[in-house]
């Protein structure tokens, strides 16, 4: 019986295993050193905030794996011998495979800062990070202040978590406006104000120079690069992005870039070895997407597609139109299609921006300034339907069509205020849109 071994029990690896079982009778083993069972990584923050217990983050009952004949092995892979098709574990034992899938995800970036491995320094990605946070920041008596380094989505989640326990937070963001490599200026500035309104000490254009420790090797302060200022703190959250978790593959013969290099079938350069999820790097980026995408739903899609290929129905990975969603404290964010920030914005891309007077709701619509083709939308504080925008992008609708039909996409619950009339009025009153 063909043995499929999957290294990593995140959304990609588990989706693959489930679909392999639906499609076949193959022997399946999932290996992870992180946890006994699959859990929803995006829900970790809610455990710390008291909204759920850790076991609530596990989508499947513990008996599910045995019932579906999916073997789980808790171990750390030290070396992959692709010629002998053997995995060697840190614990000293080994395992043979017929086909190998690398789904090891990401780890937080570290940039060689002095003190970056001290006690009280953590990312917010693994279950172990949650355990470290509980140990070093159980309350604001043990943790008098936390410093977060890096202004992405994980950084804002960690700030919200600490805020929920009334722990003072200083947020060091190297950009001059929050997440402005991704968000257009109006949105980025609205989020700056929203963060400050939550009494978070947001420091823009600010870099970490070093982390100082006490005699026990615990965090005691950070030094700011630009000013030399020393900030006393007990916890440092490193949230300056993530990197594929692939160090154990260095001598395997598998082609590596920043991640594990794969083609559109998610195959590596070695026969019978594949990579999916955050650690997979496309040789050729797909459309405007990045070669590596640390996104939950693309990891799930890769698992589904690769299961088909392994079971004899060879299928290319085609993620479709870009979309994503997140939360900035109290403001929900969704994006469909492409809306570029100030950096890297193409010449042809025009934006229509509307913001509500309460400064917590806005939309930005991107369109082609010559053809008027709708390119994408960002929405903050107003929920929109994915399938509607997905269809409009496929149908290549123009911006007028989208703006006049915006209410069809609204997904806010009943009795919520609706803003489409205000948005349309603002849109039609813009002289530069040169309405025909």
UniProtKB/TrEMBL annotation:
Query: Which cofactors must be present for this protein to function?
Result: FAD
What region holds the FAD/NAD(P)-binding domain? 3-285
Does the keyword Membrane belong to this entry?
no
Output the superkingdom of the source species: Bacteria
Gene3D superfamilies xrefs: FAD/NAD(P)-binding domain (3.50.50.60)
Q: Does the keyword Cell division apply?
A: no
UniProt keyword terms in alphabetical order: FAD, Flavoprotein
Query: InterPro entries, alphabetically?
Result: FAD-bd_OxRdtase, FAD/NAD-bd_sf, FAD/NAD-binding_dom
For this UniProt entry, which segments traverse the membrane?
none
Task: Report the family membership.
Answer: Belongs to the FAD-dependent oxidoreductase family.
Protein name stated in the entry: NAD(P)/FAD-dependent oxidoreductase
Q: What organism does the UniProt record list as the source?
A: Winogradskyella rapida
